[in-house]
Amino acid sequence: MTSLREFFLLDPRVVFLNHGSYGATPRPVFDTFLKWQKRMESQPVYFVDHDMPELMASARQTLADYVKSRAEDLVYVPNATFGVNVVANSLSLGPGDEVLATDHEYGACDRTWRYYSQKRGFTYLRQPIMIPVRSAEQIVEQFWRGVTANTKVIFISHITSSTALRLPVELICARAREVGIMTLVDGAHAPGQIPLNLNDIGADFYVGNGHKWLCGPKGSAFLHVRRERQPLIEPLIVGWGWGVDRKLTFGSDFIDYLQWWGTYYIAAYLSLPAAIEFQAAHNWSDVQEKCHALLAQALGRMNRLTGLEPIYTDDENFYHQMAIASIPIQKDIDAFKSQLYDRFHIEIPCIEWNDRHFIRLSVQGYNDQADLDALLEAMEILISGK
Fold this sequence. Notes:
- By secondary structure, this protein is an alpha/beta fold.
- The chain has 2 domains: about 30-280, Aspartate Aminotransferase, domain 2 (3-Layer(aba) Sandwich); about 285-385, Aspartate Aminotransferase, domain 1, CATH 3.90.1150.10.
- Helix content is about 45%, strand content about 15%.
- The strands form 3 sheets. The chain has a 7-stranded mixed β-sheet, with helices on both faces.
- The mean pLDDT is about 95.
C-alpha cells in the first residue's frame, strides 16, 4: 500500500494508530485553513459583513453534495457533540417521555442526554447491544426491545466510538418513522470512512464530524435536520441570527440560528471542501479498501496472539477503518496504554467497556504494514510480561 504519510504533519517518531480520536489533517488542507484565517484577518469587517454569507453557502453546498442532502438542510457546527446538544436542547421532552440509546454511545453525548434528562425530567435509557454481533437484523431486534409507548426519541451512533461497530441506522430510522419516533444519529465517525447518503438514512437529525475520517481541520462538523423538523430547532447560543427584526443573513431561521451568533473563525468550515477534494484526488475509495484489508489482517493476528474471540463476524460491513480487539484483562488499562506509548511510541487507545478491555485500532492512508507490525510486536511483549 502506498503511504500518504508525506502529506500529513504527524510526528514521524510516533506510530500513529489513533486517527479515530481527533483525525489528522493533510498539509494541503491545513494550508487552506491558514489561508482562510489570514484572509479574514486582512479585512475582518468586510469579510464578515460581505464575504461570509456567500462563502458559507458555497461550503455548505459542497458538503451537501458529498453527504447527498440539500444544502438548506444542514449547518456547520464545531463538532458532533455540539450538534447533539443543539437537538437535545431544542426538543420539548419532559416527565413521562423516554429517550432510547444503546450502551455503545460516545461519553460526551451520553453525558449530554443525562444532563438534559435530569434538568427536564424525562428518562434516558441505554439498551444493551451484545457483542459479537451476527447480523444487522439481530442488532435491530436487540435494540427494539428497549422501545416503549413512551419512547419519543432514538439516539444512536452510525459507527460507535467505544466498539467501532457500524450500526444499521437505516433500518432503525425506517422502523422508528413508522411509529412516529424521532431519530438522532451520531455520525461522528462516518464521513470519510464510509459513503454517506443522508436522504437514504432518513434520520430526523444527523450529526457528523469533518475533522475525523474526512481529514478536515479541527472544528469542522455538521448538523443535518430534515426540513419538516427544522421548526423544532432552537439556537443553542442566542445572537444576531435570532429575532423577527433581524436581517436574514444565511437564508432560513434554521441556518441563521446556528451560523450567526457572533464573531468566530469560519476557516475550518471553509476548508472542509478542500478535504473533500483532497480525498477525491487520491482515490479515497481505494484508500479505504486497502486500509480495511490491513485492519482485517491485523485483527486476525491480534486474536491469534491473545486467543480471544473476535468481536466481528467476517461480514465487513460491521467495521471499516476502525475496529477493536479484546485484550487479556489488565489490572490497569491506562498503564497498558501508557506503556505502549512510553516504551514503543505507539499512539493507540485502550478502552474499558462493560467490564471488558479492548484496544481500538484505526488504519488511515498514512499507515502501512510496518505500523501494524510494530503494534503486534509491542503487544506480544507486554502481554507476555516482558
